[in-house]
Amino acid sequence: MKSSFYEKAISRADKLTNVQLRDIANNLMLDKERLEAALQSMFDGIVVCNLENVPVFINRSAERILKIPSGWEGGPFWMAISDEDLKDFFCWALTSEETILGKEFALEGSGGTRIISVSLSALLSGDRISGTIIHIEDITEKRKKESQLRRAESLAALTTLAAGVAHEINNPLGSISIHIQLIEKLLTAKDPPDIPAISKHLDVVKDEIERLKQIVVDFLFAVRPMDIQLLTENPGAIVREVVELVKYEAEKNKVAVKVSIDKNIPDLLLDKRQIKQAVLNLAQNAIAAMPKGGKLGFAVSCANEEVKIAISDTGTGIPESQLSKIFEPYFTTKKNGTGLGLTITFKIIKEHSGEITVDSKEGKGSTFTIHLPVPQKEKKALPILEGSAAIAGSHKEA
Ligand SMILES: Nc1ncnc2c1ncn2[C@@H]1O[C@H](COP(=O)(O)OP(=O)(O)O)[C@@H](O)[C@H]1O
Ligand SMILES: [Mg+2]
């Protein structure tokens, strides 16, 4: 039943008969039982603590996952935890003022290691804070599936890569073979042999060997585990450096550069050299997509726990049928392209736990957007809801 109904009933309690009051109490009890049953039946653990950090509700899953003796009572919640790390964490988290999302722990148990994810947030009653709600999820299976998927993905990537290399190597090898046959012919055709003609073929052979070397170098770069060094850097400043690097190339190609970097861009843990390389690859592709000139845009913004770096162009755009292929190694539509630029960019962004998205219209242009996550701890403790000053500060203030 709705709480507004109960509110009305309470305000008129003195006018109600005993039977009516008993009915209402009965309904209330049923409602409460249903709510408790729902919380008890949840697969995830739920713990509700009051403002003194003493648990007022612990569901069965929480008892099972955290190994709390059934019916445990007394003292702040962390006293119920036997695992030392977890105990320290709860002691710190409950007494500090932070909202915590998905902090992970490994718990040793008889059935092996389980990975659990713990979140804490303020318990709101209306617009007042009346305690803390703890959510515990056993993510062991989820993690297992994820790593299986990752292995399958990397195997698939390796297969494409190997096929790409084989294909790439075939062309120069074929050409070397033809030119060597031609040289052999020239050696026996005339006496003395036609040296200038022979050296022309030798030049082609030399060029093709260079191409083979480059394929190997690029291949190694693409497959080598990246040696990334994360330091505190500002994404906006990195983009500014890339703009400096491409300014002249853009000007030469009649491309106007527009830069927009928001003021609120937080510092992130980044490998500056790599991120610079990733943005540079996107910028160079953008310039290459505008052979008749156009506009190249760099936009850095921050919202919803991520920093976005968007590189846009007014170039040829990418046909729908190619959109799924452009990140594949060796996919190129350029005469002298390597087809590795986007592969490397993708890899760099993945190494930073980020994502890259593409929005493209043929004939209109493309926008490549790098999404970099902003770590939780850099966020405010609680979201500030409009008109509810009580929860704007610490969640223990109310
Ligand atoms: N901004 C863009 N506009 C149009 N096409 C693009 C753009 N960026 C990438 N592409 C397409 O994706 C392909 C792969 O890009 P990339 O991996 O950088 O290799 P490469 O630049 O050597 O061709 C390009 O050949 C091109 O067809
Ligand atoms: Mg490229």
Give your account of this protein's structure.
- With 398 residues, the chain is an alpha+beta fold.
- The protein is 45% helix and 23% strand.
- It has three domains: 3-139, 2-Layer Sandwich (Beta-Lactamase); 144-223, Orthogonal Bundle (Helix Hairpins), CATH 1.10.287; 231-378, Histidine kinase-like ATPase, C-terminal domain (Heat Shock Protein 90, 2-Layer Sandwich).
- A five-stranded antiparallel β-sheet has the order 2-1-5-4-3, sandwiched between helices. The chain has a five-stranded mixed β-sheet with strand order 7-9-10-12-11. A two-stranded antiparallel sheet has the order 6-8.
- Adenosine-5'-diphosphate (ADP) is lined by residues 281, 285-286, 289, 313, 315-316, 318, 326, 331-334, 337-343, 366.
- Residues 281, 284-285, 341 line the site of magnesium ion.
Short description:
With 398 residues, the protein is α+β, with helices and mostly antiparallel strands. The chain has 3 domains: 137 residues, PAS domain (Beta-Lactamase); 80 residues, Helix Hairpins; 148 residues, 2-Layer Sandwich (Heat Shock Protein 90), CATH 3.30.565. The chain contains 10 helices and 12 strands.
